[in-house]
Specification:
Elements lengths: L2 E8 L3 H16 L4 E9 L3 H11 L3 E3 L2 H6 L5 E4 L6 H10 L3 E4 L7 H14 L3 E3 L7 H11 L6 E9 L20 H4 L3 H17 L2 E9 L4 E3 L6 E3 L5 E8 L4 E7 L8 E8 L2 E6 L5 E6 L10 E4 L20 H18 L7 H20 L3 E2 L4
Parallel strand pairs: 1-2, 1-4, 2-3, 4-5, 5-6, 7-12
Antiparallel strand pairs: 7-13, 8-11, 8-17, 9-10, 11-12, 13-14, 14-15, 15-16
Helix pairs in contact: 1-9, 4-5, 5-10, 6-8, 8-10
The chain binds alpha-L-sorbopyranose.
């Protein structure tokens, strides 16, 4: 008999769908002691909450997140709302003793994120932040290679996250789907939305970042605001590039933009070590490119590892070798790991505290771009 874990999901948009799919599929493919029960879906608009609940099989709806948190039949609160609501919801959920699974980025800024970490650590509740790309099997394999020492000393870390969906000046800011363009809802632009993913992966794979120097640009300076109907200044960063130093002595180079025509969600990273290098590309997410200088010189070259073997991370739970999986599986893996860790009494990485470290880098990047100076990253 599996133990039920009653989920209350807040925010019925894109991320609400990815998480709900994760809750529904995890037990079909992973042997777990817990089973998520989709108890309640919450959105401000009743019709949206109802339509979402019907489609994803939630038992009930709420239109006020405070009521959802107050319910005795909710064990875990999943926060899939815009960034400016993460802190009040997470703090209230922690005070009510609920487990919390929070969308990235953790918070609007480091100060707010610290308050969230204080609240959940005081409450002692299980928590995780949905930096999902760690759980693409090829990225988890990269972590395994690094931990095994295959790369040796790391010299360089390079990452990009390129999109092109905000190039039109006609696109408004604010409202459903477009809150990412509104600094009041998002906190920042590509830094919190896209580079945060790259930073989370980098901290996981290559350790902490000690200092950064950055530049940002806002290409479209004014956009109509969906909620006010007025043309208002755009305060998010449309593009951001930064250099950094890692604590292990390696150098980092990161770039993100929503103005790279032709690129939709091109998250790539490359790591160069003393013995070997690895590369990963979200558009080809089941492959890990690997070059090992210790190979025989006449056959030495880049290998493209199709990460679909039963020996590869997560893959024994899926199909047969050679058959790949995709984006949605990263969320299923996070649910499976969360439930497995819950049964073992272990934390699920990235915890709120680990996500706070990503927030600290984002804050240092934005400060550096504003001040035009190198910034030390606040240790957390
Ligand atoms: C933005 O377009 C976005 O959906 C991000 O918010 C996600 O975190 C990223 O994974 C894909 O792009």
């Amino acid at each position: 008999m599996l133990k039920p874990l009653n989920i209350g999901l807040i925010g019925c948009g894109f991320m609400g769908r990815t998480h709900s799919n994760g809750y529904k599929r995890a037990n079909d493919f992973f042997d777990l002691q817990y089973r998520p029960v989709l108890k309640a879906a919450c959105a401000r608009n009743e019709a949206s909450a109802r339509a979402f609940a019907d489609r994803w099989d939630y038992e009930s709806i709420e239109t006020d997140w405070r009521k959802l948190i107050a319910r005795d039949d909710i064990d875990a609160v999943d926060i899939c709302t815009p960034n400016n609501t993460h802190a009040p919801i997470a703090i209230a959920a922690a005070e009510a003793g609920k487990m919390i699974l929070c969308e990235k980025p953790l918070a609007m800024d480091l100060v707010e994120g610290q308050k969230m970490v204080d609240a959940i650590e005081k409450a002692g509740v299980s928590n995780t932040v949905w930096y999902n790309y760690r759980r693409a099997p090829a990225v988890t394999l990269a972590k395994q290679f690094i931990d095994e020492g295959r790369l040796g000393r790391i010299f360089h870390y390079r990452a990009n996250f390129l999109q092109d969906w905000t190039i039109s000046a006609e696109l408004p800011q604010g409202g459903a789907g477009l809150w990412r363009l509104d600094a009041a809802s998002a906190g920042s632009g590509v830094t919190g939305d896209l580079l945060a993913h790259c930073i989370d992966t980098a901290l996981w794979l290559n350790g902490s970042i000690s200092s950064v120097t950055a530049m940002t640009e806002t290409f479209i300076k004014e956009r109509k605001h969906t909620e006010t109907g007025q043309v208002e200044p755009v305060k998010i960063d449309d593009a951001c590039a930064f250099l950094c130093r890692f604590a292990n002595g390696s150098l980092g180079l990161f770039e993100s933009t929503r103005y790279a025509r032709g690129h939709k969600a091109l998250y790539t990273f490359e790591i160069n070590g003393e013995h070997a290098s690895i590369k990963w590309d979200l558009h080809d997410l089941h492959r890990l490119e690997y070059f090992d200088h210790r190979d025989d010189s006449i056959t030495r070259g880049w290998r493209s590892i199709h990460v679909s073997d039963g020996d590869h991370p997560y893959m024994k739970n899926w199909w047969v070798p050679g058959l790949q999986i995709g984006y949605e599986h990263t969320f299923i893996h996070q649910v499976a790991d969360f439930l497995e860790n819950l049964a073992k009494g272990q934390p699920t990485s990235p915890t709120f505290r680990e996500a706070l470290a990503t927030q600290a880098v984002c804050d240092a990047v934005l400060d550096s771009a504003e001040l035009g100076q190198w910034q030390t990253v606040v240790p957390v």
